[in-house]
Design goal:
single chain; three-stranded antiparallel β-sheet; 93 residues; alpha+beta
């Protein structure tokens, strides 16, 4: 039994691990230099709403209060703002 254990011990110690060389990976290189080539395109244009409406007051004056925010959906007849007109009465649209 002792002889078997010594034999296994010596066999395991005498095993040499085979070292493999790292595999070679071929790569392609290139020299880079400054270029005036621009990647991308620029366009000029005007962005407009798809559905919109012109809003105006019947009188001139200063806006007293605004009831809606930019981009908010509104309904026909909804009060958008109050205007203090040059005339004695206040106008609402």
């Amino acid at each position: 039994m002792v002889a078997l254990a010594i034999g296994i011990f010596l066999a395991s110690c005498s095993k040499k691990e085979v070292m493999r060389a790292p595999s070679v990976v071929n790569v392609k290189t290139m020299r880079v230099s400054p270029s005036s080539h621009v990647v991308g395109k620029s366009y000029m244009g005007k962005i407009e709403e798809q559905d919109g409406a012109n809003v105006s007051f019947d009188v001139t004056g200063n806006v007293k209060r605004v009831y809606v925010e930019e981009g908010q959906f509104v309904k026909r007849g909804q009060v958008l703002a109050d205007v203090i007109s040059c005339a004695p009465s206040t106008s609402t649209i």
